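Please decode residue identities from the backbone states below.
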């Protein structure tokens, strides 16, 4: 509804605008519109924020040792991580820190400063451990003289019967020894024997004409080691049931063999680190400087 002249006058006076009697009502209304204050825009209302859920407290990250079982942690507490040990000390600790209920294997891990991709640095050898390996091994011999092989201690021996077992995949032996003359007959079984580490090899002493000696050494604890792709040798050297002296003798024999195989091209430190451990047990660092 349009304002009257009197109402326009009241509105103009309220705004502090001088009222001009000479102007028409339409002009006064226009003047009022020009001087009327702009309506303030109401601020946009923000949508109500959802109540933030309280964050769960962040648990501190557990160390590698804290993530292990309580028996392992108790065993690890006996090892001083700020020092390295002599072979004799490590052998005693290996026996003390084994917490499993079975006769665990004692393992030697030797990190070498070699490049296994180089032929002369692909360290590999075998030896008879002075105190034996502690393993009960079943030996098969591919030979024409089965009687002599069995007399030497082999559980399986012969030619056709043994090859038939391999053909069927009935492999129940731990070591396979062969005479050089019969090695060609094993060629077609390389894919079966190779991945299991059972393919006879002259370097491991399992291809020989002296079957009696090979069987005797295998029973006595002949082991083979070979550096892996990262330059580390992993080898079982006995059992927890061994005396510390027996373990010490085996460790020293293996280390002596490894040092004897040092490539001529390696200058400076050859042994980067050496650790002794047991099945499911903590590792014990050895003093490399004392090993030589």
């Amino acid at each position: 509804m349009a304002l009257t002249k009197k109402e326009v006058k009241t509105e103009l006076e309220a705004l502090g605008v001088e009222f001009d009697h000479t102007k028409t009502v339409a002009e006064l209304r226009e003047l009022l519109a020009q001087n009327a204050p702009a309506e303030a825009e109401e601020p946009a209302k923000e949508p109500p924020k959802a109540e933030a859920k309280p964050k769960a407290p962040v648990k501190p990250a557990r160390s590698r040792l804290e993530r292990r079982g309580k028996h392992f942690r108790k065993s690890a507490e006996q090892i001083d991580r700020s020092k390295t040990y002599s072979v004799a000390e490590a052998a005693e600790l290996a026996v003390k820190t084994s917490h499993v209920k079975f006769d665990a294997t004692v393992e030697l891990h030797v990190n070498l400063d070699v490049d296994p991709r180089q032929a002369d640095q692909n360290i590999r050898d075998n030896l008879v451990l002075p105190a034996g390996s502690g393993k009960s091994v079943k030996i098969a011999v591919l030979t024409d003289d089965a009687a002599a092989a069995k007399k030497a201690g082999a559980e399986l021996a012969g030619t056709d019967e043994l090859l038939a077992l391999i053909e069927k995949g009935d492999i129940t032996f731990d070591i396979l020894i062969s005479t050089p003359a019969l090695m060609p007959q094993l060629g077609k079984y390389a894919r079966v024997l190779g991945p299991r580490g059972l393919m006879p090899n002259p370097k491991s002493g399992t291809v020989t004409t002296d079957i009696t000696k090979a069987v005797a050494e295998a029973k006595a604890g002949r082991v083979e080691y070979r550096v892996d792709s990262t330059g580390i040798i992993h080898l079982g050297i006995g059992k927890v049931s061994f005396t510390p002296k027996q373990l010490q003798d085996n460790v020293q024999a293996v280390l002596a063999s490894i040092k004897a195989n040092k490539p001529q091209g390696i200058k400076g430190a050859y042994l980067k680190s050496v650790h002794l451990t047991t099945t499911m047990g903590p590792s014990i660092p050895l003093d490399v400087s004392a090993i030589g």
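Observation: The longest strand covers residues 105-112.
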